Amino acid sequence: MTTGGAPRAVAARRLSGPALAAALLAVLPAAGCGVPGNADASGTPSPSASTSSPEELCTRIVAHWSREVLDSTAYGDYQSMGLSNGQYEILRTVVDAARTAKKRQGADAADELIGREAAEGCADRYRSGGPTEGPWQ
């Protein structure tokens, strides 16, 4: 691909279209670009991609935003948080309970409550496999 010791990047600039695509495909696997099972430069296998259930994703995002808005007087826009309408309802319930817990028992109790209530709310929401009442539910 290169001549006279020219770096790959310089040689790649000279290629176009199908030749460039073929050159990139030849280099990417050798670079170990996130393909599960590939080894990094040290020979250590890279981790395989993992997936999370909708319930786990819901729990993480609701807990995250609950902690973010706990000390705020407003909740913010659910769409800008990446939440569905149903997840936003869980967040509001969690934050209301966490505010009460924080006043009575302190910040650590509120933080524990957020994790627990977000998990329970999301488990209830996704128990039957996911919402079916429309795209924002």
What is the fold's blueprint, element by element?
Layout: H1 8-14, H2 17-31, H3 54-69, H4 85-105, H5 107-126
Descriptive report:
The protein has five helices and no strands. The chain has 137 residues and is mostly helical. The chain has two domains: 1-35, no CATH class; 54-126, no CATH class. The longest helix has 21 residues, at 85-105.
Radius of gyration: 24 Å
* Alpha carbon gap, first and last residue: 53 Å
Strand content: under 5%
Q: What is the element string, with H for helices and E for strands?
A: HHHHH
* Overall pLDDT: 75
Task: Note the total helix count.
Answer: 5
Descriptive tags:
137 residues; single chain; mainly alpha; 5 helices
Would you summarize the structure shown here?
This protein is mainly alpha-helical. The chain contains 5 helices and no strands.
